[in-house]
């Protein structure tokens, strides 16, 4: 039954109890407002003020069905957040003090599968804004509820503590909930018009308040959270060693799925041409990787199988840690120096002192040969877990042992950049500068680990490049200085097309006096009028980028597959179609709950590898779930199973790699990420409830793919 909606006018006394800065609103009736469990911000009934709605590449209208009114959004897709913005009254932000979550009921009233996304607040910090968002997958006609947490835990410290260098922080608010000014509902990564409804936008859940007394230090000598206990937590070095002995005994038995080839291919499947290296082939309308012996191979992998991937910053935060080794302590060897931080607290504090709790725990467990044991255990575990690939940026000492197939990783370094471009990881390469090809050649040669090795499937080159919205790199080119090689090339192309500047001015509705004037200008034209030219040059940037890398990579590693740049976020058909001409396997980092409905642009039929995905939870002492949330370790396993089985059903997908082998440090890596995303924890112990479901999935994955 729909909840009771009553018009409620706030008195001065009630505002003192809970300052909700609205003239009037609907609220669930309670005996005492201070004990309210739900506060309705928008329900689109009679008191609704349309001036509080702002469309973004969309239109909206109020729909009435029976005794209920709701908001229908007719959405386009030319903006990243095409949809509708719901605003508080002018100069009167919502005060949601005491509430834990924002919930909203949404439904897909269109004909296509969509993802409805909700952003809460207008924090200018992009990461903080991302923290206060979530989305829901909806099939046509399907209804659901989006839930956005306003705090990292269902309780908060009062007063708040100043904890730095970490994305997820126990007892911390995600944003200033006393001053929420807007919420944005949009169709996530839409590529075509769509339609959804919104109703019953409300704040729910009471945040428990705790005093922060005696919180520091909050990390023990093993890198674990001090103020919580859980099954599997290590309390002594003796427990660490006992866990290692127990696992080694288990892994010394006959482990792993049967009927697999030397490289992890499926012996019971079709026997195809053996080339001595990994390649791809379409069999019965499904793409496969084919292993060096000719067996079909579906790559189930783990990224960052490297003990070096989990250093955490110590400088400026020494009081966070109960124990840090002194100079004469053998554990002193696990200090490091941070020299890179693209984002977060340490960005402007380079270099900084760091420490690796994971490596120190390996030393406690295995002694001086801890690194060799780490490599040995990685191979044994991957086999036992039914997986077959060591993924992105992993330990060369492990991959060189030729026990598990692996992928190579190449970063194109020291390239000239398009100065007017922008992106999360930095500016885009200027592919028209002759120095770009030189940088590609040098980068490939210097990072060619795996070239012509039968165990190496192929190479990811670069990672999560910011291609932006359609035409954006061309716009960045126009905003660049006159000596930018990309801009010189763009003007050359325009001059060839239009001949005279007057002809371009007519189309663009500009007033440039000459081609040189356009070259020196950094003003952007009207995007709609210049759309065709912006898109054409944008496509040329993509084509030049992928073609140069393909050429230089194949010179050095002709027997390995070019796996692409691991597309992330929203990607348009122009870039994907262009890339498909040069890639052996297209790669995507897809943090979703399901990948079953993944699609390529029309006319593109290529094998696809998922480069990253994961699910995390907070039940084992972690502070951040990562990008996709689970309730506990068992649900992480269920989500893994659902994701992989969806990928196995897809005719183009030839594998998926989980990010990552290890949990990230509780106190954050170089950029503050502290996600519970590992198959193993900081003490080098597997999450058994997760692993159980992983094995249920992987041991039967070849049969599952052939039957579905």
Oligomer: single chain
CATH superfamily heading of the largest domain:
Glycosidases
Cα end-to-end separation: 40 Å
The low-confidence parts are: 1-34
> In CATH terms, what is the fold-level topology of the largest domain?
TIM Barrel
- Shape, per Cα inertia axes: globular
Q: Give the amount of beta strand, in percent.
A: 15-25%
Cα gyration radius (Å) = 27 Å
| Annotated CATH architecture of the largest domain | Alpha-Beta Barrel
The CATH class of the largest domain turns out to be Alpha Beta
Instruction: Count the E strands.
Output: 30
What's the structural domain tally? 3
Helix content: 10-25%
* Biggest sheet layout: 8 strands, antiparallel
Describe the structure.
This protein has 708 residues and is α/β, with parallel strands linked by helices. The chain has 3 domains: 7-210, Galactose-binding lectin (Jelly Rolls, Sandwich), CATH 2.60.120; 237-411 and 565-707, Alpha-Beta Barrel (TIM Barrel), CATH 3.20.20; 434-446 and 466-562, no CATH class. It is built from 16 helices and 30 strands. Strands 1, 2, 3, 5, 6, 8, 11 and 14 form an 8-stranded antiparallel sheet that branches. It has an 8-stranded parallel sheet with strand order 27-26-25-24-20-30-29-28, covered by helices on one side. Strand 29 (608-612), helix 14 (633-649) and strand 30 (653-658) form a beta-alpha-beta unit. It is globular.
